[in-house]
Design a protein that fits this description.
alpha+beta, globular, 13 helices, 8-stranded antiparallel β-sheet
């Protein structure tokens, strides 16, 4: 989700200043097995966001934790079983559907997109399905969503079609580089992939996602809403600090069509953990396609490598690498990371993103994720993970 660098810095500074005085005192509920997870979640809230929440799974045993307040001004803690906007974690779901179609012989990874969607992209250079999945297509990142902090609030009911998103982000804009020669994170590319899945199946993407993933896996909290703005049964309400000298703005209700197949999904920590466990177990993809998905470009996003719809990072504790995806959108910051064996998993979030203090982002990566994915303390010599920009 695109915001100019200057505006993004303004949002961050506003968030740090206002939340220093307005954040609710952290409050945690009991977990299945109180551990390092609870203090890690409290550290995220103490850094300046209203709430954090997580479900960690170790050897098949789930532990849930929360900190902060589900709603500003109310004492109620977050719901660890609640739903949230997972933003770019959507990309792994979309990539899984597309790779299923590859496994079924309906398209090839190296097919030019124009072969299936002629005229959609205004570029003569051939762009392949593989390049879209791995962000090596050279396509522009996205439409410009907001030019001022206030527009995060005032444009929340703006509606887009997927075709409009592609057209507005590419018309008159050159490719960033020759396809396949570099890496640049592109939400536009995943919008194209969603349209490709619709063209090949003859069904809306939301229907195809339900048929192939959410219904078979029993993901009752997961939906692809697009034009429907409401978030039912939220883990916590989402906030951003958008106006000087005012409390954070509730941005929970939002039309997500502006991010469609790049970040539209709603889910829960439980559902995300179940999805990734099934994915890595080979229940969703044939072995050749899973192998392609997990072949990653090192250092694509800072310390994170990127495969086909999957992020990976070296375990700071020295154990198995972590795999999954993160997501950023107004009011919701999400991480869902796992070992390939899925013997350690965590899906976690906090209820602020665009204006979240950098310390909160760092605590999410370096305290919450490590509390679940590392069997012991992180070595003092390990460099802290830096969060990539997944807007």
């Amino acid at each position: 989700m695109v915001l100019s660098g200057r505006r993004r810095r303004t949002l961050t500074v506003l968030g740090v200043c206002a939340l220093a005085v307005s954040v609710i005192t952290p409050a945690a509920i009991a977990t299945a097995d109180p551990s390092r997870l609870d203090p890690a979640l409290r550290a995220v809230v103490a850094a300046g966001v209203p709430a954090s929440y997580a479900e960690a799974v170790t050897g098949g045993r789930a532990e849930r934790g929360v900190a902060g307040a589900a709603e500003l001004g109310q004492p109620r803690p977050p719901n660890p079983n609640g739903r949230f906007r997972v933003a770019s974690v959507t990309k792994t779901f979309v990539a899984t559907v597309v790779l299923q179609l590859v496994g079924e012989g309906k398209l090839g990874l190296d097919d030019p997109v124009a072969q299936h969607l002629p005229g959609l992209l205004p570029y003569p250079e051939p762009i392949t399905v593989r390049q879209l999945l791995g962000h090596t297509s050279g396509l522009p990142r996205d439409i410009t969503h907001w030019t001022t902090p206030a527009e995060v609030d005032t444009l929340r009911f703006q509606r887009f079609s997927p075709e409009q998103l592609v057209r507005e982000s590419t018309t008159g804009k050159p490719l960033l580089f020759a396809p396949g020669t570099s890496f640049s994170y592109s939400n536009t590319g995943y919008t194209v992939l969603g349209l490709l899945a619709e063209k090949l199946t003859g069904r809306p993407f939301a229907v195809e996602l339900a048929r192939r993933i959410t219904v078979p896996l029993g993901l009752r909290d997961t939906e692809f809403p697009a034009q429907q703005p409401f978030l039912l049964r939220p883990a916590a309400r989402g906030y951003e600090q958008l106006y000087p000298d005012k409390p954070p703005t509730d941005v929970t209700t939002y039309v997500m069509s502006r991010v469609w197949a790049s970040g539209n999904l709603i889910s829960s920590a439980r559902d995300l953990n179940r999805f990734f466990a099934a994915l890595f177990a080979g229940d969703l993809l044939p072995a050749p396609q899973l192998r392609e998905m997990t072949t990653a470009r090192p250092g694509a996003l800072g310390p994170f490598g990127y495969g086909l719809g999957l992020m990976t990072v070296a375990n700071p504790c020295g154990g198995p690498d972590w795999w999954g995806h993160g997501g950023d959108f107004a009011g919701f910051n999400t991480w869902s990371m796992h070992t390939r064996a899925a013997d350690r998993q965590i899906s976690a979030g906090m209820s602020m993103d665009l204006t979240a203090p950098p310390a909160a982002r760092l605590a999410m990566l370096n305290q919450v994720l490590t509390a679940a994915l590392c069997p012991g303390p992180v070595p003092r010599t390990a460099a802290p993970l830096t969060p990539p920009d997944l807007r």
